[in-house]
Each structure stands twice: as structure tokens, then as C-alpha cells.
Specification:
By secondary structure, the chain is mainly α. Helices cover 75% and strands 3% of the residues.
Length: 142
């Protein structure tokens, strides 16, 4: 089945992903690669701005989480920049499609960790900080 110029039957086959010399990129995939890169870099910049604002508001726990998101986005963007370069230049081993597959798998795992951190760890840290602040108000001040 061909949709958007992509043969989807090939995409779900191992030889498609394990080909070390996959050939030139199509215009559609070049635009997709560049769109993914631009999105990662823009959201990285937004997370850094948000982190600075949260630090100014003294909300360090959420700022730490935004720092983790920023690290994720920057790492994904830089590694994808290298993948795009090697793929664009059609370098045999380093331009292989399996690097994109590895990049996607690592991104999904890391994103899963960030979601877990947001749902499980962040509320516990906020609650611990609230408890600490409640107890602090009864302590004598210097």
C-alpha cells in the first residue's frame, strides 16, 4: 500500500531498516527530517525559557523537570542532526535507516521515563517540600 509516496509494506520489514546503503533521501523525507529538527530545537528553547522563569519564581522542582525535558530535546535534536547529515550525504554505514529506528526507540524510552517522572516522582517531591515548609514555619528564625 502506497500512501504519501511511502510503501508502508516495506517500512514494516526488517531488510528495509537494516540496509546499510539505503540511497538518497526523497524530498518528502528531507522535509520531515528538517521539521523534526526544527520542532526539537524550538521546544528546547521554550523549555529553557520556562525553566528560567520558574527559577525566578523559586519553583525549583518544576524547573528541574523542565531541565530534564530540555536535555531530552537537545540530545534528540543533536543526535538527529548527525543522523540527518549522514543520511543526506548517503554515507553507507552511518547513513543507514537503522539509526533512525534506534533514535525513535531511545526517544520513546526516554519520553516514557519523563512521563513516569512527571506522574510519580514530581508529586512526591512537591508534597515533601510542602511538608518541609509547614514544619519550617514553627522553627525559630535567625
Amino acid at each position: 500500500m502506497v500512501f504519501l509516496g511511502i510503501d508502508w509494506g516495506k517500512i514494516f520489514s526488517a531488510p528495509f531498516w537494516l540496509d546499510v546503503a539505503p540511497g538518497d533521501l526523497s524530498d518528502f523525507f528531507e522535509k520531515m527530517f528538517l521539521a523534526a529538527l526544527i520542532i526539537c530545537y524550538v521546544f528546547y528553547g521554550a523549555s529553557k525559557l520556562g525553566e528560567k522563569r520558574l527559577i525566578a519564581k523559586r519553583s525549583f522542582i518544576v524547573a528541574k523537570f523542565l531541565n530534564k525535558i530540555g536535555n531530552f530535546l537537545l540530545t534528540m535534536a543533536v543526535s538527529f542532526t548527525f543522523i540527518f547529515f549522514f543520511r543526506y550525504e548517503a554515507i553507507p554505514f552511518l547513513g543507514g535507516r537503522f539509526w533512525v529506528l534506534i533514535w525513535i526507540i531511545i526517544g520513546i524510552i526516554w519520553l516514557g521515563y519523563l512521563i513516569w517522572y512527571f506522574q510519580k516522582v514530581l508529586p512526591k517531591q512537591k508534597q515533601a517540600l510542602e511538608q518541609k515548609n509547614k514544619l519550617k514555619k514553627y522553627l525559630p528564625k535567625k
